[in-house]
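STRUCTURE REQUEST FORM
Protein name: TetR/AcrR family transcriptional regulator
Source organism: Siminovitchia fortis
Requested output: C-alpha coordinates
Priority: standard
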Amino acid sequence: MAKKQLIMEKALELFAKQGFESTSVQQITEHCGISKGAFYLSFKSKDELILELLDHFTMQDLLEIDYLVRNTENETLLYDFYQATFDSFQKHSDFAKIFLKEQMHTLDEKFVNKMRTYEKSFEEVILTIVERLYREEIKEAKYDLIYCIKGFLNTYSQILLFSDAPVDLELLSQSLVEKTNILARHTTIPFITKEIAQVCPASEKATKEQILELIQEKMEEMEDSIEKESLVLLKEHLLKPALSPAIVKGLLENIRHHPHCKWISYLLRRYWEM
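Status: completed
Returned output:
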Protein backbone atom coordinates (compact mmCIF):
# COMPACT_ATOMS: atom_id res chain seq x y z
CA MET A 1 0.00 0.00 0.00
CA ALA A 2 1.30 3.47 -0.90
CA LYS A 3 2.29 5.55 2.13
CA LYS A 4 -0.13 8.35 1.29
CA GLN A 5 -3.04 5.93 1.08
CA LEU A 6 -1.96 4.28 4.35
CA ILE A 7 -1.96 7.64 6.14
CA MET A 8 -5.42 8.49 4.81
CA GLU A 9 -6.91 5.15 5.88
CA LYS A 10 -5.34 5.15 9.36
CA ALA A 11 -6.17 8.82 9.95
CA LEU A 12 -9.79 8.17 9.04
CA GLU A 13 -9.95 5.46 11.71
CA LEU A 14 -8.75 7.95 14.34
CA PHE A 15 -11.03 10.75 13.11
CA ALA A 16 -14.03 8.40 13.42
CA LYS A 17 -13.13 7.64 17.06
CA GLN A 18 -11.88 11.03 18.23
CA GLY A 19 -12.95 13.69 15.75
CA PHE A 20 -10.73 15.96 13.66
CA GLU A 21 -9.76 18.48 16.31
CA SER A 22 -8.87 15.88 18.96
CA THR A 23 -6.58 13.92 16.64
CA SER A 24 -2.98 15.11 16.37
CA VAL A 25 -0.39 14.46 13.68
CA GLN A 26 1.62 12.61 16.33
CA GLN A 27 -1.27 10.24 16.94
CA ILE A 28 -1.72 9.68 13.23
CA THR A 29 1.95 8.84 12.67
CA GLU A 30 1.99 6.47 15.66
CA HIS A 31 -1.14 4.74 14.37
CA CYS A 32 0.51 4.38 10.96
CA GLY A 33 3.88 3.29 12.36
CA ILE A 34 5.74 6.05 10.50
CA SER A 35 7.75 9.13 11.42
CA LYS A 36 6.46 12.69 11.35
CA GLY A 37 8.90 13.35 8.53
CA ALA A 38 7.23 10.65 6.45
CA PHE A 39 3.84 12.25 7.15
CA TYR A 40 4.98 15.67 6.01
CA LEU A 41 6.39 14.23 2.79
CA SER A 42 2.80 13.33 1.88
CA PHE A 43 0.85 16.17 3.51
CA LYS A 44 1.88 19.67 4.51
CA SER A 45 -0.50 19.66 7.48
CA LYS A 46 -3.41 17.86 9.11
CA ASP A 47 -5.78 20.29 7.39
CA GLU A 48 -4.40 19.28 4.00
CA LEU A 49 -4.93 15.62 4.93
CA ILE A 50 -8.57 16.31 5.86
CA LEU A 51 -9.18 18.14 2.59
CA GLU A 52 -7.54 15.28 0.70
CA LEU A 53 -9.93 12.84 2.36
CA LEU A 54 -12.93 14.96 1.41
CA ASP A 55 -11.59 15.28 -2.10
CA HIS A 56 -11.08 11.51 -2.29
CA PHE A 57 -14.62 10.64 -1.23
CA THR A 58 -16.20 13.22 -3.52
CA MET A 59 -14.15 12.17 -6.51
CA GLN A 60 -14.82 8.48 -5.87
CA ASP A 61 -18.57 9.08 -5.80
CA LEU A 62 -18.47 11.15 -8.97
CA LEU A 63 -16.45 8.56 -10.88
CA GLU A 64 -18.70 5.66 -9.88
CA ILE A 65 -21.90 7.52 -10.77
CA ASP A 66 -20.47 8.76 -14.07
CA TYR A 67 -19.45 5.21 -14.98
CA LEU A 68 -22.88 3.86 -14.07
CA VAL A 69 -24.69 6.43 -16.19
CA ARG A 70 -22.51 5.69 -19.19
CA ASN A 71 -23.03 1.94 -18.91
CA THR A 72 -26.68 1.50 -17.88
CA GLU A 73 -29.70 1.05 -20.13
CA ASN A 74 -32.45 3.68 -20.00
CA GLU A 75 -35.00 1.28 -18.50
CA THR A 76 -33.24 1.14 -15.14
CA LEU A 77 -31.04 4.24 -15.38
CA LEU A 78 -32.90 6.53 -12.96
CA TYR A 79 -33.43 3.81 -10.36
CA ASP A 80 -29.81 2.66 -10.55
CA PHE A 81 -28.65 6.29 -10.25
CA TYR A 82 -30.60 6.89 -7.05
CA GLN A 83 -29.67 3.50 -5.61
CA ALA A 84 -25.95 3.93 -6.30
CA THR A 85 -25.87 7.52 -5.04
CA PHE A 86 -27.54 6.71 -1.72
CA ASP A 87 -25.52 3.52 -1.33
CA SER A 88 -22.29 5.49 -1.76
CA PHE A 89 -23.46 8.16 0.67
CA GLN A 90 -24.37 5.51 3.22
CA LYS A 91 -20.89 3.99 3.00
CA HIS A 92 -19.33 7.39 3.75
CA SER A 93 -21.90 8.51 6.32
CA ASP A 94 -19.54 8.19 9.31
CA PHE A 95 -17.11 10.63 7.74
CA ALA A 96 -19.95 12.97 6.74
CA LYS A 97 -21.23 13.00 10.33
CA ILE A 98 -17.80 13.96 11.67
CA PHE A 99 -17.48 16.69 9.07
CA LEU A 100 -20.89 18.22 9.82
CA LYS A 101 -20.49 17.92 13.59
CA GLU A 102 -17.19 19.73 13.75
CA GLN A 103 -18.10 22.51 11.27
CA MET A 104 -14.73 22.40 9.60
CA HIS A 105 -12.71 25.60 9.72
CA THR A 106 -10.47 24.34 6.93
CA LEU A 107 -12.87 25.14 4.10
CA ASP A 108 -10.69 27.68 2.37
CA GLU A 109 -11.40 29.23 -1.02
CA LYS A 110 -9.33 26.64 -2.88
CA PHE A 111 -11.34 23.79 -1.42
CA VAL A 112 -14.69 25.53 -1.96
CA ASN A 113 -13.78 26.05 -5.62
CA LYS A 114 -12.77 22.41 -5.96
CA MET A 115 -16.02 21.22 -4.44
CA ARG A 116 -17.94 23.51 -6.75
CA THR A 117 -16.17 21.92 -9.71
CA TYR A 118 -17.26 18.47 -8.56
CA GLU A 119 -20.80 19.73 -8.00
CA LYS A 120 -20.97 21.05 -11.55
CA SER A 121 -19.63 17.74 -12.85
CA PHE A 122 -22.33 15.92 -10.88
CA GLU A 123 -24.95 18.24 -12.39
CA GLU A 124 -23.64 17.27 -15.83
CA VAL A 125 -24.23 13.61 -14.97
CA ILE A 126 -27.81 14.39 -13.92
CA LEU A 127 -28.32 16.44 -17.10
CA THR A 128 -27.19 13.43 -19.15
CA ILE A 129 -29.79 11.27 -17.39
CA VAL A 130 -32.56 13.82 -17.88
CA GLU A 131 -31.85 14.30 -21.57
CA ARG A 132 -31.59 10.57 -22.23
CA LEU A 133 -34.80 9.68 -20.45
CA TYR A 134 -37.14 12.53 -21.28
CA ARG A 135 -35.70 14.09 -24.45
CA GLU A 136 -37.92 16.79 -25.97
CA GLU A 137 -40.78 16.45 -23.48
CA ILE A 138 -38.60 18.03 -20.78
CA LYS A 139 -36.82 20.59 -22.97
CA GLU A 140 -38.17 23.68 -21.17
CA ALA A 141 -38.00 22.30 -17.63
CA LYS A 142 -34.87 20.14 -17.63
CA TYR A 143 -32.84 22.52 -15.48
CA ASP A 144 -35.65 22.66 -12.92
CA LEU A 145 -35.62 18.87 -12.90
CA ILE A 146 -31.86 18.81 -12.24
CA TYR A 147 -32.37 20.96 -9.15
CA CYS A 148 -35.30 18.81 -8.04
CA ILE A 149 -33.20 15.64 -8.31
CA LYS A 150 -30.38 17.31 -6.37
CA GLY A 151 -32.94 18.38 -3.79
CA PHE A 152 -34.21 14.81 -3.43
CA LEU A 153 -30.66 13.56 -2.92
CA ASN A 154 -29.75 16.23 -0.37
CA THR A 155 -32.99 15.96 1.60
CA TYR A 156 -33.28 12.19 1.78
CA SER A 157 -29.57 11.85 2.58
CA GLN A 158 -30.38 13.44 5.93
CA ILE A 159 -32.30 10.28 6.80
CA LEU A 160 -29.19 8.20 6.21
CA LEU A 161 -27.21 10.54 8.43
CA PHE A 162 -29.51 11.08 11.36
CA SER A 163 -32.09 8.29 11.46
CA ASP A 164 -31.42 5.29 13.68
CA ALA A 165 -34.01 3.23 11.81
CA PRO A 166 -32.82 1.05 8.89
CA VAL A 167 -33.38 2.61 5.49
CA ASP A 168 -34.68 0.52 2.59
CA LEU A 169 -32.64 1.98 -0.27
CA GLU A 170 -34.54 -0.06 -2.84
CA LEU A 171 -37.89 1.39 -1.74
CA LEU A 172 -36.41 4.89 -1.46
CA SER A 173 -35.01 4.71 -5.00
CA GLN A 174 -38.32 3.42 -6.39
CA SER A 175 -40.19 6.22 -4.64
CA LEU A 176 -37.87 8.90 -6.03
CA VAL A 177 -38.09 7.47 -9.54
CA GLU A 178 -41.87 7.85 -9.33
CA LYS A 179 -41.61 11.43 -8.03
CA THR A 180 -39.05 12.36 -10.69
CA ASN A 181 -41.22 10.97 -13.48
CA ILE A 182 -44.23 12.94 -12.24
CA LEU A 183 -42.23 16.17 -12.17
CA ALA A 184 -40.72 15.49 -15.59
CA ARG A 185 -44.07 14.86 -17.24
CA HIS A 186 -46.27 17.39 -15.48
CA THR A 187 -44.16 20.48 -14.78
CA THR A 188 -45.69 23.41 -16.68
CA ILE A 189 -44.10 26.44 -15.01
CA PRO A 190 -40.31 26.03 -15.12
CA PHE A 191 -38.18 28.49 -13.16
CA ILE A 192 -34.52 27.47 -13.51
CA THR A 193 -33.01 28.51 -16.84
CA LYS A 194 -29.69 27.40 -18.30
CA GLU A 195 -28.23 30.77 -17.36
CA ILE A 196 -29.29 30.42 -13.72
CA ALA A 197 -28.18 26.80 -13.53
CA GLN A 198 -24.90 27.45 -15.34
CA VAL A 199 -24.83 23.81 -16.39
CA CYS A 200 -22.86 23.14 -19.55
CA PRO A 201 -23.42 19.76 -21.24
CA ALA A 202 -19.94 19.77 -22.70
CA SER A 203 -17.57 21.03 -20.04
CA GLU A 204 -13.93 21.60 -20.81
CA LYS A 205 -11.97 18.36 -21.03
CA ALA A 206 -8.49 17.81 -19.74
CA THR A 207 -5.88 18.17 -22.48
CA LYS A 208 -3.78 15.28 -23.69
CA GLU A 209 -0.72 16.90 -22.12
CA GLN A 210 -2.44 17.22 -18.74
CA ILE A 211 -3.53 13.58 -18.79
CA LEU A 212 -0.07 12.38 -19.84
CA GLU A 213 1.51 14.33 -16.99
CA LEU A 214 -0.92 12.81 -14.51
CA ILE A 215 -0.35 9.29 -15.86
CA GLN A 216 3.42 9.67 -15.52
CA GLU A 217 3.05 10.96 -11.97
CA LYS A 218 0.83 8.05 -10.91
CA MET A 219 2.96 5.42 -12.65
CA GLU A 220 5.91 6.49 -10.51
CA GLU A 221 3.84 5.85 -7.37
CA MET A 222 2.61 2.40 -8.41
CA GLU A 223 4.17 -1.01 -7.98
CA ASP A 224 4.27 -3.44 -10.90
CA SER A 225 0.77 -4.76 -11.50
CA ILE A 226 -1.88 -5.33 -14.16
CA GLU A 227 -3.14 -1.81 -13.49
CA LYS A 228 0.28 -0.30 -14.10
CA GLU A 229 0.75 -2.31 -17.30
CA SER A 230 -2.69 -1.14 -18.46
CA LEU A 231 -1.71 2.44 -17.69
CA VAL A 232 1.45 2.06 -19.79
CA LEU A 233 -0.60 0.82 -22.75
CA LEU A 234 -3.15 3.61 -22.37
CA LYS A 235 -0.35 6.17 -22.29
CA GLU A 236 1.13 4.74 -25.50
CA HIS A 237 -2.30 4.78 -27.14
CA LEU A 238 -2.82 8.39 -26.06
CA LEU A 239 0.50 9.34 -27.66
CA LYS A 240 -0.02 7.23 -30.80
CA PRO A 241 -3.48 5.64 -31.23
CA ALA A 242 -3.11 1.99 -32.24
CA LEU A 243 -5.61 0.03 -30.13
CA SER A 244 -9.18 -0.90 -30.94
CA PRO A 245 -12.02 0.69 -28.89
CA ALA A 246 -12.76 -2.70 -27.31
CA ILE A 247 -9.19 -3.06 -26.05
CA VAL A 248 -9.16 0.52 -24.76
CA LYS A 249 -12.39 -0.10 -22.85
CA GLY A 250 -10.88 -3.25 -21.37
CA LEU A 251 -7.78 -1.38 -20.24
CA LEU A 252 -9.91 1.38 -18.71
CA GLU A 253 -11.89 -1.26 -16.84
CA ASN A 254 -8.61 -2.71 -15.52
CA ILE A 255 -7.63 0.60 -13.89
CA ARG A 256 -11.07 1.87 -12.85
CA HIS A 257 -10.93 0.63 -9.25
CA HIS A 258 -7.25 1.30 -8.51
CA PRO A 259 -6.91 4.23 -6.06
CA HIS A 260 -4.19 5.87 -8.17
CA CYS A 261 -6.06 5.45 -11.44
CA LYS A 262 -9.73 6.31 -10.83
CA TRP A 263 -9.39 9.94 -11.86
CA ILE A 264 -7.24 9.03 -14.87
CA SER A 265 -9.89 6.52 -15.97
CA TYR A 266 -12.55 9.23 -15.73
CA LEU A 267 -10.46 11.77 -17.67
CA LEU A 268 -9.60 9.27 -20.41
CA ARG A 269 -13.22 8.19 -20.85
CA ARG A 270 -14.20 11.81 -21.26
CA TYR A 271 -11.26 12.52 -23.57
CA TRP A 272 -12.13 9.59 -25.84
CA GLU A 273 -15.90 10.03 -25.28
CA MET A 274 -16.34 6.41 -24.18
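Reviewer notes: The radius of gyration is 20 Å. DSSP finds 14 helices and no strands in the chain.
Form closed.
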